[in-house]
Design goal:
Blueprint: H1 14-18, E1 25-30, H2 35-47, E2 52-56, H3 65-71, H4 74-77, E3 80-83, H5 86-95, E4 98-103, E5 110-111, E6 122-128, H6 136-141, E7 144-147, H7 159-174
Parallel strand pairs: 1-2, 1-6, 2-3, 4-6, 4-7, 5-7
Helix pairs in contact: 2-3, 2-7
């Protein structure tokens, strides 16, 4: 097997990407403090056609060199908006007909492998702060919570790893060759 070169990958330009149909899927970052995590979420969102990223609270916004370090330009291709309060972002999403899930460990959460999405509906997922997770008042506003089952000694995953798993799972269910 021969590795593909960057030219073999035939990627879209930023302008072409902006004009490409996206999934009906928004990622919300609730007080995510690490600029590298934010950049990673942008990069994964670009790879899997996320419609938009909502950056909330203390979550930094582009342009920023440390976001760019991991986003590698995805902060320019993926649409984003800033909200001072995550609760306002959730209200906006719900008013636009999105089903909103927090990615959080709660009683009666839905295990990621059991989530069933409908291709004709719109979804948003909220990823929380690296230490405190999603704010309880935000969890309370959501339609449900999704939990990634874990079987080792640690009780959580890095937020950018969590985003990758969630975005990939939603992509697999929602992508129909737009």
């Amino acid at each position: 097997m021969k590795k593909k070169s960057i030219l073999d990958l035939d990627r879209l330009s930023t302008e072409q990407y902006k004009n490409t149909d996206k999934l009906p899927f928004v990622v919300v970052l609730d007080n995510v403090r690490s600029l590298n995590n934010i950049g990673s979420v942008f990069r994964t969102s670009d790879a899997f056609l996320v419609e938009k990223i909502y950056l909330c609270g203390i979550t930094a916004t582009p342009p920023h060199a440390d976001i760019h370090k991991t986003a590698l330009g995805a902060e320019d291709s993926v649409d984003w908006v800033y909200y001072e309060n995550t609760t306002d972002a959730v209200k906006q999403l719900k008013s636009e007909g999105y089903t909103v899930y927090s990615i959080e460990q709660v009683n009666n959460s839905i295990a990621l492998q059991n989530i069933v999405l409908k291709s004709d509906e719109k979804y948003a997922v909220i990823l929380g702060n690296e230490v405190k997770g999603v704010q309880q008042e935000v969890v309370d506003m959501c339609d449900g919570c999704i939990e990634i089952p874990q079987f080792g000694t640690k009780h959580s995953l890095n937020v950018s790893v969590t985003a990758g798993l969630i975005i990939w799972d939603f992509f697999k269910q929602l992508y129909r060759g737009l």
